[in-house]
Amino acid sequence: MKLYQISYDLRKQRDYLSLYERIKAYGTWCHALESTWIIVSDQTAVQIRDNLQMALDKDDGLLVTRLQGEGAWVGLSDEITQWLKNQASHCTV
Could you count the other beta carbons within 10 Å of the beta carbon of residue 63? Predict the structure, then answer.
């Protein structure tokens, strides 16, 4: 399993519900920041992008990045911090 960061910019219609449903369907997820989620998946970044893109309008932006190695953050809740630490220790680099 691999960790991926999903960042998006929904511009005009802002249909968050459809995007959130697709993200949550991955099963293991964390809504880390307002427009940033972290998921665990065996899919590639391209496969995840293609899946999530179906919930976006043509003017929306989406970035899917595999997380590996070192990471740092500030201002996240204790729950999110613990989730990130737990998932990072279980995922492949």
Answer: 13
End-to-end CA distance of the chain: 9
Contact assessment for residue 59 and residue 12, using Cβ atoms and an 8 Å cutoff = yes
How many structural domains compose the chain? 1
In tens, the pLDDT along 34-44 reads 999 999 999 99
Whether this prediction's pTM lies above 0.70 is answered by yes
Q: Residue 31 maps to which CATH number? A: 3.30.70.240
**DSSP classification of residue 18:** H
Segments in the chain forming alpha helices (H):
16-24, 45-53, 78-90
Query: For residue 8, how far is the Cα from the chain centroid?
Result: 9
